[in-house]
Amino acid sequence: MTDARGNARPNGEAPARHTPGAPCRVSLMVHGLDTAQDFYAALFGWEFRPGPRQLGPCVRALLDGREVAGIGVLAPDRQLPPAWTPSFASDDVDLSAEAVRSCGGTVGVGPLDAADAGRLAMASDPCGAVFGIRDTVALPPTAVPGRPGTPVWNELTTYEAAGAAKFYQAVFGYEDGPPVGTGPDRVTLYLDGRPAVGVHGVGSALPRDRGPHWTTYFTVADVDAAVDRVRRLGGRILEPARDGDRGRVATVTDPEGARFALVPAGH
């Protein structure tokens, strides 16, 4: 499993710059920041540092001193489920936010400047799936893609794939390409000839308590062992480990119910 992250530096370092439209960060919003840190530190070996104050109580998750993800606290007056959310790179966050609005989406936060995190916005597509937009210039170096504990893929689960894909193509300039994976109503969107994100339409099978949403896939050394660790740490197993197009895959949640997927490193 590969994605369009930009041009890699020598010696396996993180890309110097993310391709506009490429998934560039993932963030988690939860109710209990300490509980989330304990869970993901034990599962992925992450360490944590304080995040930008403009974003409220939040931390940056690190591997080998490089950023992997952000974790923030949900506002108590907003009835939103804990969830992982991808952000996509943009050369002009304000212009991308305007494109979201003109294509029928909603911009819920920003665009705003968040210290060294740069300019960013939070938005949702016309069906309600939430995503972020981040300035390509201000993004700090990320952990080496594919290393256990890093995000490697993002897939949108929605009502119908083709219609949702058109929105993201209009906003971020994605190209059509052959689907990654088998099954009905799947679209893979490409950047520079490489798979960037997946879209899966499930129609009425979409969970009523979740609605359209993005799922982030994280790499682990051993999927079955990681599933056992999730269970011991208080998470839940939504889809047990199974062999598929992306290797062995499992879908799980953390103790608050934020869902994510586990895949072997190297996929």
UniProtKB/TrEMBL annotation:
<dbReference type="GO" id="GO:0051213">
    <property type="term" value="F:dioxygenase activity"/>
</dbReference>
<dbReference type="InterPro" id="IPR037523">
    <property type="entry name" value="VOC_core"/>
</dbReference>
<feature type="domain" description="VOC">
    <location>
        <begin position="150"/>
        <end position="265"/>
    </location>
</feature>
<dbReference type="InterPro" id="IPR041581">
    <property type="entry name" value="Glyoxalase_6"/>
</dbReference>
<keyword id="KW-0560">Oxidoreductase</keyword>
<keyword id="KW-0223">Dioxygenase</keyword>
<feature type="region of interest" description="Disordered">
    <location>
        <begin position="1"/>
        <end position="21"/>
    </location>
</feature>
<dbReference type="Pfam" id="PF18029">
    <property type="entry name" value="Glyoxalase_6"/>
</dbReference>
<protein>
    <submittedName>
        <fullName>Glyoxalase/bleomycin resistance/extradiol dioxygenase family protein</fullName>
    </submittedName>
</protein>
<feature type="domain" description="VOC">
    <location>
        <begin position="22"/>
        <end position="136"/>
    </location>
</feature>
<dbReference type="InterPro" id="IPR029068">
    <property type="entry name" value="Glyas_Bleomycin-R_OHBP_Dase"/>
</dbReference>
<dbReference type="InterPro" id="IPR052164">
    <property type="entry name" value="Anthracycline_SecMetBiosynth"/>
</dbReference>
